[in-house]
Amino acid sequence: MAQEAGMFMVNQTVGSVLCCKCGIPMAPNAANMCVRCLRSEVDITEGLQKHVIIIHCPECDSYLQPPRTWIKAQLESKELLTFCVKRLKNLNKVRLVHAEFIWTEPHSKRIKVKLKVQKEVLNGAVLEQSYVVEFVQQEHMCESCMRVQANPDQWVAAVQLRQHVSHRRTFFYLEQMILKHGAAAAAIKIKQMDQGIDFFFSNRSHGVKFVEFIGKVAPVRSRHDKQLVSHDPKSNNYNYKYTFSVEISPICREDLICLPPKVAVSLGNLGPLVICTKVTNSIALLDPFTLRHCFLDADQYWRVSFKSLLTSRQLVEYIVLDVEIVKPEVNVGGYTLADAQVARLSDFGKNDTIFSIRTHLGHLLNPGDHALGYDLYATNSNDMELEKYKGLVLPDAILVKKSYEEKLQRKRGKPRSWKLKSLNMEVDDKGKGEQEKMNSEYEQFLKDLEENPDMRFNISLYRNKEYQPSEVASMTDGEDLPSIPLEEMLADLDISEDEDGDSNMV
């Protein structure tokens, strides 16, 4: 503003003084010394550690934080840098400004960290100086790794996960949940059993944490027991082995259930014929005739446990002949009531049997579509809960979901654009029949993932490098064919580097 008013302004200049030791011009400071002379007079890193010995476990790649804590950290990671800085003594005498790794050959067992510190010296002048600290690794296995090396089968806690059903669809889903959240990272061994999976841990707390995780993702009930292994009467020390038995509810998604009268009354006279639409830590039930739905938590289920009337392995394929929406304005939970005429696919060319039924899939089905459902017309059920309802008229069929089997025939045998990871499990040698059954169940699980976006919400999908899209196939596939969008795979891309430095996508 002074220049705009035409006033005379004196140019401000920064004065300079001569260094009291070497005499070179410099900006004035409290010590009247240049930086080079000041560093020659004062060493602020004097008394600070420059050589430190750290204990490293080569098996689990962890470092000892005295007295007994082991910290897992990768080379040149933030966790390892924090660990190294905390191991330095007398660092509180200076102010730490910056810290970074200096690359050293990994097999040299040396870690070099460059630190930049500041300290007030000589009449209030602040001096900044850098120095290098060398950390020497001494190899020493931690207690858990020593126990495993001495006896690989030695475990402290075992979690026996079981579900008494004839398929493994639930365990395929739980496996992906465990992988995404790293719930079994502390397991020393995982073994696949006939009706479940066994997890072995070297610490009881790891087993307890794993049981709590399973209870948050599935309706379970558990009990635990312990067995005395050894006892030292002099020091009064006891060693136990702990076993946790976890049972998952036999109710699975898409199962048809006949609710017991007491349960139906407690849920507001729901059903009694209902379909299980989703299983998390609670069971979601849907009445396909009224669109009423409710949730049954684990405590409510195990208080009056019941089994499924029909399971997904008994689904029958139908052809939809006609569909008429009952009330277009009524849409509960994404479902729409409709009256449909269907015929079994196996009856075509043999008879003219047509069923008139009511379904909750009015928003999905169109004439000519295929659907999977339960054939109550030809099923001879001896369920005890069903016999308690006297005068109950069963429908001829109950549709569960739309079928894309006919359109998927063209893509059979071709690799998918995505893939899943699997746990490192020990699997006993099975016969050819059991292996084929396992493969077909896993293929059905992959199809369910493609058809149901809700199932993919808690699962990590990875891009398949072997997949090569074909223009001819993309032109012949149906537009409504279920598929997984690329965005869901990009969120879980795993980028790693090989030994030769090339980056690959898994």
Automatic annotation (TrEMBL):
The keyword Nucleus appears for this protein: yes
Family: Belongs to the NMD3 family.
GO cellular component, as recorded: cytoplasm; nucleus
60S ribosomal export protein NMD3 SH3 domain sequence ranges: 251-295
Protein name: 60S ribosomal export protein NMD3
GO annotation terms (biological process): protein transport; ribosomal large subunit export from nucleus
Family matches, as InterPro entries: Nmd3, Nmd3_N, NMD_SH3, OB_NMD3
Subcellular location field: Cytoplasm; Nucleus
Job of this protein: Acts as an adapter for the XPO1/CRM1-mediated export of the 60S ribosomal subunit.
Domain 60S ribosomal export protein NMD3 OB-fold: 315-402
GO function terms (MF aspect): ribosomal large subunit binding
Keywords: Cytoplasm, Nucleus, Protein transport, Transport
Database matches in PANTHER family: 60S RIBOSOMAL EXPORT PROTEIN NMD3 (PTHR12746:SF2), NONSENSE-MEDIATED MRNA DECAY PROTEIN 3 (PTHR12746)
Keyword Protein transport appears in the UniProt entry: yes
Nmd3 N-terminal domain segment(s): 19-248
Coiled coil stretches, renumbered: none
